C-alpha cells in the first residue's frame, strides 16, 4: 500500500509500519534543516575550545528535537521505541551528522549506570545535568589493568562519610573535558578481585584529581591519564552497594552497545563507504573487486547490528552476539581504512588533520587507519572478544589459566 | 649459493649494534626528530668510527656483506641517518650517496643533511639532486633532479636491497620488543606470553620476518655474484619486505596494546620511522606492478633454473 505524499524509498530497508515511515520523513526533514552542511570543513584543524563548543551546541540541537537521548526512559527525556531509534540513527548517518564524541559516556554509560543502580537522588542530580551538557569520562583502565580490568588497584578507603581514593587511571577518553568520572576503585583489598571493587561518581574538580593528556601517534591527545591523590568522594556518590561495583559495571557496560554499534555501522555504510568509492580508481578491476567485497561485508554488518538490537529488545540475544559485532566491525574498519590509505598513496600520508567530531571514517584515510586501532585494542581487545565468542558463544572450554 | 653472511660481517654487525647503543641508542632518533639538522652530528661520528665509509659495497663481497650487516644494525636502533643510501653510492659519480626514486614526486630520507646525492629511477635514469623541498615527517624531502645519464641500471639493485636490510633490522627489534612486552605484562594472573592466541600471532610475525631475512640474503648474493636478474630479485625482496613489515608491525602494535601508539614506547618510534622505507620509492601495489611488468611472462629465475 502506498501513500502518495511519501517517496518510494521509505520502504528501502525493511517493511516499515506507517508510523515508522512517517517518523523517518520527520527525521529526514529535521536533518536537512539542522545539520550544519559545512561542518566537516569548518571543524578540520580547530582547537580544543572550538571542538568542545561545537560538540555542546550540536548536542543541544539534537536535544531540542528530542533526538539526543532517544534510548532513555520517557520521564527523563527519551522514550523513542527501538524501531524509531533504528530509523533515527540510520537517518543521522545518511545525512552525515556530526558524531557525539564528548557526550558519549554521559548519555550511554553514566545514564545506564544511574538508571540501573543509581539512587533517585543521584538520578535527579545527574540525568538532567547530562542533558544540559555535563561531560563524563570513564575511569576504569589502569596501567596494570587493561584487558584484565578486575585486577585494578586504585584504592578507596572509607573514612567517616566519605572515601579517600588513591591511584592512577589510564586511557580515559576525553578526560580533559570531563566534569564527572565513572570510577572503579578497590574497597576491599582482601576479597577475591571481582568482589572488592566499588563504583563511584567522582566530581573532576575535587582536589587531588590531576588529568594529563597522552599524545598519541597522530599527535592528538584525546586519551588521558588521571592521577588520584587522596581524593575525597562523599559516600553518597557510591553507586550500588560497597564492593558490588564489578557487578554494576558488568550490567551497564554493554547496555547500549547494540544501538551505538548500529550507529557506527550505518556511518560506515553511508558516508564512509561513499568516500572510499569516490576516492578509488574504480576502473581498476582489482580495486573494483575489493570495493564489492567491502560493500558485501558492510551490508552484513548492518544486518548483524540490527539483529542484535532487535534480539536485545526481545530478550533473545545470544551471550556472544555483541562480541561478534564488535570484532567484525573493528576488523572490517581496520581493513577498510587500510585500503583507503593504500589507494590514497603518498598523498594520503600528507594529510595531518581530519574533521573533529567525525567518526572513525573521515576520508583522511591514513589517520583513520591509525585511529582504527582504537577498536581492536580498547573496549575488550580482539583477543578478548575471540575468547568470549569461543567460551560463551561456542561453549568451548576455558583456556588453562594460572589463577 | 651462500645463504648466510660471513662471520666477519656478522661480527661487524654486532659491533655496530653496541656502538649505536653507546652513542645514544633509542635517544638518537628522538633527538633527530626534534632537530633534523642534528642528524649528521648525532650519527656521523659513530659511523665514521665504525669505518662505514671505508666499506666497498660495490666491488668487494666482504664489503657488501658488512654493509648489509651495518644497515640491519642501524635499523635495529632506527638510526636517524640514511646509512643504506650512503653505502649504495655509485663509484663513477662524485656524490655521497644514492637514492632510488619514483618518477612521480621523487623523494628520499635526506632532509637536514649536507651530503650530496645522486638519484636513480627504476629504469636506470641517473640524476644529481639539485634541490630539496621542505622537510616532511620521517626526514623525507622531495628532491629536484638534474639529469646525468641513463647508465644507472646497475645501481638500482643495491639501491633497493640495502634499505631492505635496514627494514629487516627494524623488524628484528619490533619482535624483540614485543616478546619482551608480552613476557613482562601480566593480565588474568599470567604473562600475556602464556596465552596461545598471543603466541600464535607472534609466530606468524616471526615466519614473515625470517622469510624476509632469507630473501634479503638471497638478493644480496644475487648482487655479489653479479647475476643479470639482480634487479628483479631486489624488487622481489622489496615486495616481501613491505608485506612482512605490515604483518610484523600490525602484530606488534596489537600485542603492545594502546601504549604501543604512544612515544613512551620504542615501538611507536620504530613504526613511524619504518614508513619511509615502506613507502619509498614505491609502495606495495606499485612495487608489485613493477615486478609483474618486469618478470610477469617468465617469473623469477631463482635457485633451481
Task: State the main characteristics.
heterodimer; A: 403 residues; alpha+beta; Butyryl-Coa Dehydrogenase, subunit A, domain 1; Butyryl-CoA Dehydrogenase, subunit A, domain 2; Butyryl-CoA Dehydrogenase, subunit A, domain 3; four-stranded mixed β-sheet; four-stranded antiparallel β-sheet; 13% strand; globular; disordered N terminus; B: 305 residues; five-stranded mixed β-sheet; two-stranded antiparallel ribbon; 10 helices; 7 strands
Provide structural commentary.
The complex is a heterodimer of chains A (403) and B (305). Chain A folds into three domains: 11-101, Butyryl-Coa Dehydrogenase, subunit A, domain 1, CATH 1.10.540; 135-243, Butyryl-CoA Dehydrogenase, subunit A, domain 2, CATH 2.40.110.10; 256-393, Up-down Bundle (Butyryl-CoA Dehydrogenase, subunit A, domain 3). Chain A starts with 17 loop residues before the first helix and ends in a 10-residue tail after the last helix. Chain A has helices at 18-34, 39-42, 48-65, 82-94, 104-117, 120-131, 245-253, 257-279, 285-314, 321-349, 365-371, 373-376, 382-393; strands spanning 136-139, 155-159, 162-173, 180-186, 197-203, 209-213, 223-234, 238-239. With 403 residues, chain A is α+β, with helices and mostly antiparallel strands. Chain A is built from 13 helices and eight strands. Chain A has a four-stranded mixed sheet. Chain B has a domain at 154-295: Butyryl-CoA Dehydrogenase, subunit A, domain 3. Chain B has ten helices and seven strands. Chain B has helices spanning 7-22, 27-34, 39-49, 61-76, 83-87, 153-184, 196-224, 230-256, 266-279, 284-295, and strands at 97-101, 107-108, 117-121, 126-135, 141-149, 186-187, 190-191. A five-stranded mixed sheet of chain B has the order 1-3-4-5-2. Chain B is globular, with a radius of gyration of 19 Å. The interface between A and B is medium-sized, with 32 and 29 residues.
Amino acid at each position: 500500500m502506498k501513500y502518495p505524499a511519501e517517496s518510494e524509498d521509505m520502504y528501502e530497508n525493511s517493511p516499515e509500519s506507517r508510523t515508522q515511515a512517517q517518523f523517518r520523513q520527520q527525521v529526514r526533514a529535521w536533518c536537512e534543516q539542522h545539520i550544519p552542511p559545512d561542518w566537516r570543513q569548518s571543524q578540520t584543524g580547530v582547537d580544543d575550545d572550538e571542538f568542545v563548543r561545537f560538540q555542546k551546541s550540536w548536542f543541544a540541537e539534537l536535544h531540542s528535537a528530542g533526538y539526543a537521548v532517544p534510548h532513555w526512559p520517557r520521564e527523563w527525556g527519551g522514550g523513542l521505541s527501538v524501531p524509531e531509534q533504528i530509523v533515527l540513527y540510520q537517518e543521522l548517518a545518511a545525512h552525515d551528522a556530526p558524531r557525539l564524541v564528548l557526550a558519549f559516556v554521559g548519555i550511554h554509560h553514566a545514564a545506564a549506570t544511574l538508571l540501573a543502580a543509581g539512587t533517585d537522588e543521584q538520578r535527579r542530580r545527574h540525568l538532567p545535568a547530562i542533558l544540559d551538557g555535563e561531560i563524563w569520562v570513564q575511569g576504569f583502565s589502569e596501567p596494570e589493568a587493561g584487558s584484565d580490568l578486575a585486577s585494578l588497584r586504585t584504592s578507596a578507603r572509607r573514612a567517616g562519610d566519605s572515601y579517600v581514593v588513591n591511584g592512577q587511571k589510564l586511557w580515559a577518553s576525553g578526560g580533559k573535558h570531563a566534569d564527572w568520572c565513572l570510577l572503579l576503585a578497590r574497597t576491599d583489598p582482601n576479597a577475591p578481585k571481582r568482589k572488592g571493587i566499588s563504583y563511584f561518581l567522582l566530581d573532576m574538580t575535587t582536589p587531588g584529581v590531576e588529568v594529563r593528556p597522552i599524545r598519541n601517534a597522530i599527535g592528538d591527545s584525546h586519551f588521558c591519564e588521571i592521577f588520584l591523590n587522596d581524593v575525597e568522594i562523599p559516600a553518597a556518590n557510591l553507586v550500588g552497594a560497597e564492593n558490588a561495583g564489578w557487578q554494576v559495571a558488568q550490567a551497564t557496560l554493554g547496555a547500549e552497545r547494540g544501538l551505538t554499534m548500529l550507529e557506527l555501522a550505518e556511518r560506515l555504510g553511508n558516508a564512509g563507504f561513499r568516500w572510499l568509492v569516490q576516492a578509488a580508481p574504480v576502473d581498476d578491476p582489482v580495486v573494483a573487486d575489493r570495493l564489492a567485497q567491502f560493500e558485501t561485508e558492510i551490508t552484513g554488518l548492518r544486518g548483524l547490528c540490527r539483529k542484535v538490537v532487535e534480539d536485545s529488545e526481545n530478550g533473545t540475544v545470544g551471550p556472544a552476539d555483541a562480541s561478534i559485532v564488535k570484532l567484525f566491525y573493528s576488523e572490517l574498519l581496520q581493513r577498510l581504512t587500510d585500503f583507503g590509505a593504500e589507494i590514497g598513496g603518498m598523498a594520503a600520508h600528507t594529510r595531518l588533520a581530519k574533521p573533529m567530531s567525525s567518526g572513525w571514517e573521515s576520508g583522511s584515510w591514513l589517520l583513520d587507519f591509525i585511529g582504527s586501532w582504537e577498536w581492536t585494542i580498547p573496549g575488550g581487545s580482539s583477543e578478548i572478544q575471540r575468547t568470549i565468542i569461543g567460551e560463551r558463544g561456542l561453549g568451548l572450554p576455558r583456556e588453562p589459566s594460572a589463577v | 649459493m651462500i645463504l648466510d653472511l660471513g662471520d666477519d660481517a656478522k661480527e661487524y654487525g654486532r659491533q655496530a649494534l653496541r656502538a649505536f647503543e653507546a652513542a645514544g641508542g633509542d635517544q638518537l632518533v628522538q633527538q633527530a626528530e626534534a632537530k633534523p639538522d642534528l642528524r649528521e652530528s648525532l650519527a656521523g661520528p659513530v659511523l665514521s668510527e665504525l669505518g662505514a665509509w671505508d666499506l666497498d659495497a660495490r666491488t668487494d663481497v666482504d664489503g657488501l656483506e658488512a654493509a648489509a650487516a651495518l644497515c640491519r644494525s642501524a635499523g635495529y636502533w632506527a638510526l636517524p641517518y640514511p646509512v643504506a643510501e650512503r653505502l649504495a653510492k655509485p663509484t663513477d659519480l662524485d656524490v655521497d650517496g644514492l637514492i632510488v626514486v619514483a618518477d612521480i614526486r621523487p623523494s628520499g630520507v635526506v632532509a637536514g643533511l649536507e651530503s650530496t646525492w645522486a638519484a636513480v629511477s627504476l629504469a636506470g635514469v641517473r640524476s644529481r639532486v639539485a634541490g630539496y623541498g621542505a622537510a616532511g615527517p620521517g626526514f623525507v624531502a622531495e628532491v629536484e633532479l638534474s639529469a646525468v645519464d641513463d647508465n644507472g641500471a646497475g645501481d638500482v639493485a643495491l639501491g633497493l636491497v640495502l634499505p631492505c636490510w635496514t627494514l629487516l633490522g627494524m623488524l628484528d627489534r619490533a619482535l624483540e620488543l614485543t616478546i619482551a612486552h608480552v613476557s613482562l605484562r601480566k593480565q588474568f594472573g599470567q604473562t600475556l606470553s602464556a596465552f596461545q592466541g598471543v603466541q600464535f600471532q607472534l609466530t606468524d610475525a616471526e615466519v614473515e620476518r625470517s622469510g624476509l631475512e632469507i630473501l634479503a640474503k638471497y638478493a644480496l648474493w644475487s648482487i655479489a655474484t653479479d647475476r643479470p636478474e639482480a634487479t628483479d630479485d631486489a624488487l622481489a625482496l622489496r615486495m616481501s619486505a613491505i608485506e612482512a613489515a605490515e604483518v610484523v608491525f600490525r602484530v606488534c602494535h596489537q600485542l603492545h596494546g594502546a601504549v604501543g601508539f604512544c612515544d613512551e614506547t620504542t615501538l611507536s618510534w620504530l613504526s613511524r620511522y619504518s614508513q619511509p622505507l615502506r613507502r619509498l620509492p614505491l609502495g606495495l601495489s606499485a612495487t608489485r606492478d613493477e615486478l609483474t611488468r618486469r618478470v610477469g611472462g617468465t617469473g623469477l629465475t631463482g635457485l633451481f633454473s
